[in-house]
Design goal:
alpha+beta; six-stranded mixed β-sheet; 253 residues; Butyryl-CoA Dehydrogenase, subunit A, domain 3; Nuclear Transport Factor 2, Chain: A
């Protein structure tokens, strides 16, 4: 049976969760591991499991080091509240009793601490090569109708925006959120592609994008924005047939 990163997703998540103690951070690390894996030539990997484990472990260690640095930046009370709640799982009423503070004060302190940590979380900017690999992987999964590989490319909180200018019936009227919903929408809209449509990866507004053409006109443009493994955003612009020029459509959050 051929190995794939999907077959190790649960295994990787378990390692990351045990190291970081946070499901959200564990998912981050698994997604970043997938990006690193995609950027690595397959012939250089002797053991997929060993390779993935090594990458994931190093990412988690870096995350833990950063976490300790960020904790040092918190006020003592905020640090205590955050650790008691996030790491040890105490209720706010219990924390309030331990620290001789009101429950409301503990809640406010926890919120401030969490906002601070989230604002300083590491970002993994995608290189042009990874950006293009993500687009190519998305295209291949949609063309073959494979849900598994497509889900691998999407974070759990991915958001898809569709803009049909009010004239394209298959365009979603509201943002589509979540890995499963975005994957199903992406596969479902494939049937609306024009007959004999061709798809190419080209530069739009300085970044790689998927251009679906029919004849000499653009049927739609797909761009992605990669800010963080868990915040991978896809923007789908289902445009009216039009020539692709300086004013090509762009989707932004």
């Amino acid at each position: 049976m051929e190995e794939s990163i999907e077959s190790y997703r649960t295994y990787l998540f378990a390692i990351a969760y045990r190291m970081l103690g946070s499901a959200m951070d564990a998912e981050d690390m698994v997604q970043e591991t997938y990006l690193r894996y995609q950027a690595t030539p397959p012939q250089t990997i002797r053991s997929l499991k060993a390779y993935l484990t090594t990458i994931l472990t190093r990412l988690c260690m870096d995350q833990l080091q950063l976490f300790l640095v960020l904790l040092e930046q918190l006020q003592p009370f905020e640090r205590a509240v955050f650790l008691l709640r996030e790491v040890f799982g105490y209720e706010f009423a219990e924390i309030a009793a331990m620290l001789d503070k009101s429950e409301a004060a503990c809640r406010r302190s926890f919120s401030r601490a969490k906002l601070h940590l989230q604002a300083h979380r590491p970002r993994f900017p995608a290189s042009p090569q990874i950006h293009q690999q993500l687009l190519s992987g998305y295209l291949q999964a949609v063309q073959t109708g494979e849900m598994g590989p497509l889900m691998n490319l999407l974070s759990e909180d991915v958001t898809l925006w569709a803009d049909g200018g009010g004239k394209v019936k298959q365009a979603a009227l509201h943002p589509i959120r979540g890995r499963d919903a975005v994957a199903r929408f992406s596969l479902g809209t494939k049937r609306f592609w024009p007959e004999h449509a061709r798809v190419e990866v080209e530069e739009v507004n300085g970044e790689a994008a998927l251009i679906i053409r029919t004849g000499d006109h653009v049927f739609s443009v797909l761009t992605i924005e990669v800010k963080h493994p868990r915040s991978r955003l896809l923007g789908w612009c289902a445009a009216l047939p039009m020539p692709l020029g300086r004013n090509a459509p762009r989707v932004s959050p």
